[in-house]
Design a protein that fits this description.
Radius of gyration: 20 Å
Largest sheet: 7 strands, parallel
Number of strands: 13
Number of domains: 2
Distance between the termini: 12 Å
CATH topology of the largest domain: Rossmann fold
Order of helices and strands: EHEHEHHEHEHEHEHEHEHEHEHEHHEHH
Strand content: 15-25%
Number of helices: 16
Structural class: alpha/beta
Shape: globular
CATH superfamily of the largest domain: Glycogen Phosphorylase B
CATH architecture of the largest domain: 3-Layer(aba) Sandwich
């Protein structure tokens, strides 16, 4: 069969790469075209466009790049028609993928949406699009199945969270250090890193006995990290592409909200969550977002397990206080709640189960 996969962000590239590997192992005749990144390219198939040319964060970024976004839609639609896939797999990235699903279904294509939009948080009106234009929906958070099935009557499947596959196959290697480590995960987009890193680094001076390490990623220009480090007065390292090693070697992590909060929890490292965005995004969030927490850890556990700081709350005083709380014993309670979380999100083999279901349905 022919599969067309669309992922528009680094996390989608990761999950898409695992899905491609499993599809190729299960379907000897598989032909795959995709929008994604280097991980998906290495897994197999033909790349149409890299996610670097797709990822626009927040309302203001979308507005500024609207012409480029419309051009990408035209390219995608034309390429789908020429490839004529048996199945279209849409991985997260709802702003783009929901529109493609509506267009594709009207032209007779079968749509499989992997890692559903978080409409339980906001934009619940998207449920109508999912119900009418998506043949099978795959959720990765335990509470989502009941939500989509009972409230919106969709064909919904929960096979666990694909991060479980990573921890089964890739055992983190400890970083040798004479000092205890505090790691900083500032996000995977340049906009995130530029907004948050300078504010977080101010707290490093309060803990000279610790070794601070930034978990860098290769697709971000090194100057972005180096500028933030130079602007601070602390000795801070940047280590690239060893995120899991860094987290697992840390006493605690300071994490930008996103999938990294769940990864940090699965590696059993206490954490503090920080989130900074544009004032416009915050204003719209206050009007429309319906959830109490921003981190996946707190959402899954349905209570505040880890501290969340947003906008002006991301400052050295708040961070210093919470780091001290964790150092002085709060880590025990955090790890206790992490055990509950791990029991909720399933076992490894998620990508294989999803791939098998897509192939057979």
């Amino acid at each position: 069969m022919k599969y067309y996969i669309i992922a528009g962000e680094p996390s989608g590239d990761l999950h898409g790469s695992k899905l491609i590997k499993e599809i190729l192992s299960l379907d000897d005749a598989a032909k795959i075209r995709f929008w994604g990144g280097d991980l998906m390219k290495n897994a197999g198939g033909d790349m149409v466009m890299h996610y670097r040319d797709l990822a626009f964060m927040g309302f203001s970024e979308v507005i500024l790049n609207i012409l480029k976004i419309f051009k990408n839609f035209r390219i995608c639609k034309k390429d789908i028609l020429e490839f004529n896939p048996d199945k279209i797999i849409l991985i997260d990235y709802p702003g783009f993928n929901l529109r493609i699903s509506k267009w594709a279904k009207k032209r007779g294509f079968k749509n499989y949406f992997y890692i559903s939009p978080q409409i339980w948080a906001w934009k619940e009106n998207r449920a109508k699009i999912l119900r009418n234009y998506v043949d099978e929906l795959y959720v990765v958070l335990p509470f989502e199945k009941d939500y989509f099935l009972n409230k919106h009557k969709m064909n919904v499947n929960f096979f666990g969270h694909p991060l479980m596959d990573d921890f089964k196959k890739n055992k983190p290697k400890k970083i040798q250090s004479k000092q205890p480590i505090i790691s900083i995960l500032p996000g995977s987009r340049k906009q995130e890193i530029s907004k948050i890193l300078g504010k977080v680094l101010k707290v490093c001076n309060y803990f000279p006995e610790y070794r601070f390490i930034i978990a860098g990623v290769n697709h971000i220009n090194k100057e972005t990290y180096e500028k933030a480090v130079l602007d601070s007065s602390s000795k801070i390292e940047v280590i690239y592409n060893r995120t899991y090693d860094i987290i697992s070697s840390s006493e605690l992590s300071i994490v930008t909200s996103g999938t990294a909060t769940l990864e940090t929890a699965l590696l059993n490292t206490p954490q503090i969550v920080c989130y900074i965005t544009s004032p416009l995004n915050i204003l719209l969030a206050k009007l429309f977002v319906k959830i109490k927490f921003i981190s996946l850890v707190n959402l899954i556990c349905k209570k505040e397990v880890i501290k969340e700081f947003i906008q002006s709350q991301v400052n050295e005083n708040n961070l210093e206080k919470e780091i001290n709380n964790i150092i002085k014993g709060k880590d025990i309670e955090i790890r206790k709640n992490y055990k509950f979380l791990r029991n909720q999100i399933g076992s490894d083999g998620v990508s294989k189960r999803v791939a098998k279901h897509i192939i057979n349905n």
